[in-house]
């Protein structure tokens, strides 16, 4: 008997009719399946259907049948399904339920009714395996996005489910953590666990033995090949100066005496391991984080728009249109329509933002910031999360338009291919910057990457 079977499976959300077209699928123990497709095509919807979250937690129209072993996912309670299948959400913060890293891992084990000695042994093994020992007493919501993703993975994998379903598991991981996850997935598949992965960064997965691929499509238009001129007046030349920047939070020094400058008109990519303070740096530059030191642009307080790593934190209106135009008394509607078209949001003008895919939410958050026309530029935290290759290319073309208007663009990312398209790459470690220069030069020198404990992708070293 197959471990998982989907027969004529389809689903439509009630609010907007989006979902997935009929699919037939079987998965055997020890198989690996990649679900690929453009942003918004239904990858997350499919994994929710396969694990029973649909129809138990989402009340649209589901047709067909999904069976996990001999259990119908529609007729079996979620708690019972979770004994066989584990799901990593695309947004890991959404599945953090406890007050400490240790309790987060133990929570799922306790729900399985395991003996305490078994739970403690699995806990210690999992903490070591995912390099979380030093974080065991931290509140999950104080972790970086990448650390949260590692914790969510750890909590799911500690339960040792027969079916492991992962939604964009590599999106927030640095290169070394991604390589470690790939090794774990190889081990699990070899041991008989079935693994289903919805992922845009498929380059990590080709090493999985026997990998099958299911490609979804949605029939929506791809982003435009060429973007028209960004409707905005060019800004005056400006220079960002950061002097002695230090951030201490809850007794922990996160940023150590950073000094750097950046000129308007350039795109700067900041790369570094999970948890070194990349998000904290952007929050300080935007004025959302208290700090010691000085940050100024031409002697003034910077006016920089920030796109959060987790777009859910900055979306709260009833429709995409209302979100972008929120509290703008005289909005520039030419700019509005340009952004809707350039960011592939035109079809979703009346859709509630939280019903969008993660990639679409990320593009909406960018639209809301660009609509406000910050004077000095943009800060983007992991901008390629949830984006397919075409939308990544569109994103870089748009950011180039912003830079060409003499504004500053700073991104933090684990996506080395994206960072390589910047004008300048900065490597950030736990105690400060370790390299700064043109991406080609930074990528050609393995020494700073080794100092950070980061692996260069195969396309760089090969």
Number of strands: 18
Helix and strand composition category: alpha/beta
What is the residue-averaged pLDDT? 92
How does the major sheet shape up?
A: 6 strands, mixed
As laid out across the biggest beta sheet, the strand order is 14-15-16-12-17-18
Contiguous low-pLDDT stretches (5 residues minimum) are: none
Report how far the terminal alpha carbons are from each other.
Answer: 42 Å
Kindly list the characteristics that best describe this protein.
462 residues, alpha/beta, six-stranded mixed sheet, five-stranded parallel sheet, 16 helices
Structure description:
α4 crosses α5 (116-129) and α5 runs antiparallel to α6 (145-158). The strands form four sheets. A six-stranded mixed beta sheet has the order 14-15-16-12-17-18, sandwiched between helices. Strands 6-7-8-3-9 form a five-stranded parallel beta sheet, with helices on both faces. It is α/β, with parallel strands linked by helices and 462 residues long. 32% of the residues lie in helices and 24% in strands. β10 and β11 form a beta hairpin. The protein is built from 16 helices and 18 strands.
